[in-house]
Amino acid sequence: MQMRFRGRLTKGAVSLKNARVQRRTFLGGVAALAAQACGNKQGGATKIAVIPKGTTHEFWKAVHAGAVKASRETSVEIVWKGPLKEDDLKEQVGIVESFIAQGVSGIVVAPLNDKGLLPPVKAAKQAGIPVVVFDSALQGEDHVSYVATDNVAAGKLGGERLIKALGGSGKVALLRYLEGSASTSQREQGFLEAIKGASGVSVVSDNQYGGATTESAHSTSEALLLAKGADKGELAGVFCPNESTTFGMLLALRKLGLAGKVKLCGFDASEKLVGALREGHIDGLVLQDPMKMGFLAVKTMVQHLKKEPIEKVIDTGAQVVDKENMEQPAIQALLAPDLKPYLEP
Question: DSSP H helical segments within 130-242, as ranges?
């Protein structure tokens, strides 16, 4: 009886010992993986993920070039990856989460939505991965810096240019971009504030959204122009807050035979938009500096990783281009930046 009891006790003690050994082995493995990840982030090459809103517009190509320039000057590695379309929030969230899992040194992101990116950015912070937000604002305080155009001020510039083109009087429409996009919402706000200051100009439509593609913007633009009597001379001007809405509106104006008749002020530059500016089909474009934005976003992240002081908000500037100043060298550098040294092998 006593021997059987002792036998059971010995067997139980051995099982308990084995369980403790297995647990220590498991925890040791987890600790080793954590240490390896930490070592990769701290001791290996600095790898920074750069995540744009999309990858098709000319604006993002210039941002990419600026990021590459910064990576070369600071001797860090960047990985450029973003959604194909600028309305694919789910994909952008997945990309951020993937880079967190990889244990990159830092994440630089242009949020598609000012709220939708909050959870993954918070997760990055909790994982010890700092985040720099650029181009479009993100709510919360989990990112270390925000690098962008002062979008309200830029929108005001667009409104002032349209007022000038109209001679201070006429009915105008605002074609919005996409709900939840902080940068364009702020431009739209700035535009409307500028129009309020012009007693002779009135806004007859400000609730239509062009969407994330040129195709959707074109369709919405055509419907908006016809609904507001642009073909009957009842609409004098239009403002668009980004590249795709500007081009979509341009196509609609051309299709209806109204290009140059209805004044158009837009945002950002591409070869086709610059051509339309020369033709007189666009009266003004508010230009950001996307190369500078990409450069400063990456450089700010590198400075933070080196524990150097950085600004919480960095304004990359904006200005209006029209026929009068478009040939100036400084404007030409913004209209047609040389991206080849950075984007071609």
Answer: 151-165, 182-196, 214-227
